[in-house]
Amino acid sequence: MAELLRVALVQTRTPATAETGLEHIAPLIRQAAEGGARMILTPEGSNLLEQRRDRRADALWPEADDPAVRGLRHLASELGVWLLIGSAIVRSEVEGEARAANRSLLIDDRGRTVARYDKLHVFDVDLPNGETYRESATVRPGEGAVVAATPSGPLGLTVCYDLRFPQLFRALARAGARMIAVPAAFTRPTGEAHWEVLLRARAIETGCFILAPAQGGTHEDGRKTWGRSMVVDPWGAVIAGVDHDDPCVLFADLDMSAVDRARQAVPALSHDRDFAPPAPVK
User: Fold this and answer.
1) How many Cβ atoms sit within 10 Å of the Cβ of residue 248?
2) Higher-pLDDT residue of 205, 128
3) What Å distances lie between residue 258 and 3, 80, 203, 240, 252, CA to CA?
4) CB-CB contact of 29 with 56 (8 Å)
5) Please, what's the b/e burial string for 97-108 (b: 16 or more CB within 10 A of its CB; e: otherwise)?
6) pTM of this structure
7) DSSP SS3 for 74
8) pLDDT single digits (tens) 75-121
9) Which residue of 6, 57, 162, 265 sits 20 to 30 Å from the alpha carbon of 173, by its own alpha carbon?
10) Cα–Cα distance between 92 and 66 in angstroms, integer?
């Protein structure tokens, strides 16, 4: 029988400061470790969620000093688990850059940061219900994709809105990813309409396990997020999921041999062909 990897997805309702963010999420991570998870994943904005302009600047820390990031690194070492901080909103290290970085951090079981990924695609949209988001005004987009080595296989890193860009997921799979993380803080309208179908599509297209821990509920800064954290197998089946937006821990046991079976059945990753783009239609 194939060895199973037990993972845990932590669904949160993150507060507006890093100090309270750590207090909120640490008990859930302990619960995940007590449940036998060897890899634990948290959502986008795991340290803080604060979109109010008059409070945001004072809430941000550099990555090295952020209380939540530091606390979670110590917690991973204490518990002896691999921990993906789905993202931390931290001050950018780029000189002269006023915007923050939305950064995914992979922490090993000794508390070391072994991979970093800054969210490539920022969420600039006007939703049909009147909600408007301009993430680019406060977040500097990243420049490159990342696949990180873990004891259980290569893990591709994405964050939230990246989910709508299948070319990124395909590039991660072709670079060796067998699991892809999609930590998110999806809005309620987009989550209800698109969350599950997009996650399942990305799993089918890549033949990867998709691990999607989410924010859920009404946050201190007024935003409302969808929740419904989910694990999708390489054939597109939802093998674990949450049907609400409350904080919780979701466990799943991954049979990593399912990646090879899916890719052998439909070897689309090896069937790419170069083609001329279509002429624009006026």
Assistant:
1) 16
2) 205
3) 11, 26, 12, 15, 14
4) no
5) eebbbbbbbbbb
6) 0.96
7) helix
8) 999 999 999 999 999 998 888 788 999 999 999 999 999 999 999 99
9) 6
10) 12
Whole-number pLDDT of residue 144: 97
Q: How many CB atoms lie within 10 A of CB 218?
A: 12
* Structure confidence by residue, pLDDT tens digits, 175-191: 999 999 999 999 999 99
Relative orientation angle of helices 18-34 and 67-79, to the nearest 10 degrees: 20
Q: What is the rounded distance in angstroms from the CA atom of residue 60 to the CA atom of residue 47? A: 10
Does residue 217 have a pLDDT over 60? yes
Query: What is the token pair recorded at 56?
Result: 């945001």
Q: Evaluate whether 68 touches 21 at the Cβ level (below 8 Å).
A: yes
User: What sign does the CA torsion over 47, 115, 214, 36 have?
Assistant: negative
* d(C-alpha 243, C-alpha 44), whole Å: 19
Residues in the chain: 282
Least confident of 45-54, 55-64, 89-98, 178-187: 89-98
Q: For a pLDDT cut of 70, what percent of the chain falls above it?
A: 99
Which amino acid, residue 267? P
55's enclosing H/E stretch is: helix 53-59
Q: Rounded distance, CA 233 to CA 36, Å?
A: 20
CA 125, 66, 69, 243 torsion-angle sign: negative
